[in-house]
Amino acid sequence: MALHLLNDRQKAIAALLCCAVLWSFSGVIVKLVQWHPMAIMGVRSLIAALFILVAMGRKPKFNASVPQIGAAVTYALTVALYIPAIKMTTAANAILLQYTAPIWVALFGAWFLGERCAKRDGISIAISMLGMVLFFYDDLDATALTGNLLALGSGVTIAAMMVFLRGQKHGAPLESVILGNLLAFLISLPWLFTQPLPTPVTWLGLLLMGMFQLGLSYILFCYGVRRVTAIQSVLFSMLEPILNPIWVLLLVGERPRGWALMGGILVVGAVTARGIMLALDAGDASDSAEQSVQSALSD
């Protein structure tokens, strides 16, 4: 469907789904790039910050508000936890544990934004979480405890980040992403100075991650998160944990087992069904508004 035929809510959903696809390449690229994970984090983040600055086409608006700084700090913590986690444990483990985020978003969103979790969203999240447990059931173990704990921590920080970004729905959330990437780069400096120079293949991976997998994805995410609730923003991003292991399977050789197919069906089904319901609700609201206007004009 052409973009000009979509309303704001539908465009936001499309942006979040495209963002999830771009995010899903993180596992396979990090696995293939042979460099220290903290060095990868820093250079990837610096490239992303510069890319977003250029793509914005305007002067950034830094206001040092609590949502802006909170989102920047939790963003930096998210990438600082997730990149080492994906090196220490399997891509499946890392992404599953990070996507405990909906649970934390439901808690943080109710406290910080006053957004109640709709019954439909709660059901969709429950089904999606069950699907992810099944999807990675065969792979989840305690052999990489440190990596698993880092990934779980990134689930908490990404939830807080999404709530802080949502808190800027009338502001400028991209500025938080720029600040967060610059902060992540600063965190990585001790490792950057101790690592050998990256190879051409490593540079290619870093550029792909910085420009597209991180920079473009967060431009899309910040567009979408301002037009849906915090919980819905996580829900539509939950296609990432399904696609992430698929790319790892195709390019690295990690194979999901039988339970994965069942889990994948549940997650994709829940996300797709909720997306259709939101699109239909938005269409019904638009039709009702139009009818009200026509009725007022006829009167």
Q: What does this protein look like?
A:
With 299 residues, the chain is an all-alpha fold. It has one domain (9-191, 201-291). Helix content is 78%, strand content 0%. It is built from 13 helices and no strands. The protein has helices at 8-23, 26-32, 37-56, 66-88, 91-98, 101-113, 119-135, 145-166, 173-192, 200-225, 230-237, 240-251, 258-298. Residues 286-299 have low confidence and may be disordered.
TL;DR?
The protein has helices at residues 8-23, 26-32, 37-56, 66-88, 91-98, 101-113, 119-135, 145-166, 173-192, 200-225, 230-237, 240-251, 258-298.
Largest sheet: none
Question: Can you count the helices?
Answer: 13
User: What proportion of the residues is helical, as a percent range?
Assistant: over 70%
**Poorly predicted tracts of residues:** 286-299
Provide the structure class.
mainly alpha
Q: Report Rg.
A: 19 Å
What order do the helices and strands follow? HHHHHHHHHHHHH
Beta-strand residue percentage: under 5%
| Number of domain units | 1
Mean pLDDT, rounded to whole units? 78
Q: Alpha-carbon distance between the termini?
A: 35 Å
Shape, principal axes of CA atoms: globular
Number of strands: 0
